[in-house]
Amino acid sequence: MMRPAPCRRVQRRLDDFAAGSLPAGEAWKVQQHLAACAKCAQTLNDFGALRTAASMLEPEAPPPGFEDAVMCRIVAQGLRGTPWLVRFRWAALTAPVALALALGLLVPRPEPTRTLRSVAAAPIDVGVTRASGRLAVAASDPLADLAAANLVELDGAAVGANRDADL
Amino acid sequence: MASENLATSGATAELDAALVDRCRSNDAAAFNAVVARHKARVFRFVCRMVGPGPDADDLAQETFVKAYTSLAGFRGSASLTTWLFRIAGNLCIDYRRRRKHGPARAVSLTAALFADEGREGPSEPRDPRDGPEAEALRGELRGQVYAAIDALPDKLRMVVLLYDIEGLTYDEISQVVGCPMGTVKSRLFSARCSLRSALSAYMGDLALATSAHTDRRGSAR
Ligand SMILES: [Zn+2]
Known about the structure:
The complex is a heterodimer of chains A (167) and B (221). With 167 residues, chain A is mainly α. Among the domains of chain A are: 7-56, no CATH class; 116-166, no CATH class. Chain A contains 9 helices and no strands. Chain B is an all-alpha fold and 221 residues long. Chain B has 2 domains: 1-106, Rna Polymerase Sigma Factor, Chain: A (Orthogonal Bundle); 108-221, Arc Repressor Mutant, subunit A, CATH 1.10.10.10. Chain B is built from 10 helices and no strands. In chain B, helix 1 (10-24) crosses helix 2, helix 2 packs across helix 4 and helix 4 packs across helix 8 (170-177). The two termini of chain B are 17 Å apart. Classes of the chains: A mainly alpha (167), B mainly alpha (221). The complex binds zinc ion (ZN). Zinc ion binds at residues 5, 7, 10, 33, 37, 39-40 of chain A.
């Protein structure tokens, strides 16, 4: 009795075959099948085209000031009471605040948009002042700060662990 | 598969481990370095997961905030790269679930794909031999590919992005998505079949465009 054509089994191995990661014996079997099966040979070509197509998508690059925006969010989070962030907060704050004071830049003023995105978009010298102004707002009334309110509850143990089943 | 593979590079892993140690000693500069080293890949991944735009900016930032505040729980059994992708992936999936029940996003993926002026970073050099018609066709193909990837279920899209674009191995992807390697392979195969079906009308053009792309890359080396 003839065995059914193992097309499905071969097709499931095509990515590994293309990547050269199949053991030699298995690769040889796939090769033999491809030589005789136009459908699977076409599938190999199609999968290759899809792989290349995905890699052709325009690369997205982070906006300027990305690191500053992240650090501002971390410092803002520290001010909301994550205890082990407190020391870091001061380490991160001391230098820019001292610099801002020295340059006479630290003038209290309302945050125009109250979003972190504006911090990210701002040039670095302005960003320091805005970040400091922002932190003053957060310290006096953290719950009123829209961006701070948007920050997730930070529980290291919860990162990913509780979502394994969903993935 | 993408040529770069930061997740498995020994030197990269060592440097990351050293930076993580310094972060745990409250070294702000070290964490800044972590962000600088990984922001491009995390940002690219987030953009592909949720579409480029302000929400992607926020999610990418949030990935690092969450990473920083969770560093105490990072055991180093996974690489920092796969750990960051795991955090980013979870945030993106949560975001997409919320968005399903919220208002439609303001920026279409396809439109946003070509509106990245003002961004820093690499961009594909334009081949002077390419005419406007060829460029228009490639643009349409990119839009279709993007839409097809965007339409995949989250679990499948994540695996395709991590394998095809980020160049992670099955083992690394299984750490990111938290399921066995067999499941990763199975999802990748399902994703390929879905994409091929969604792009069936374009497969001929895609084959031509991708072979031209491969040729250009080859001659540029
Ligand atoms: Zn076959």
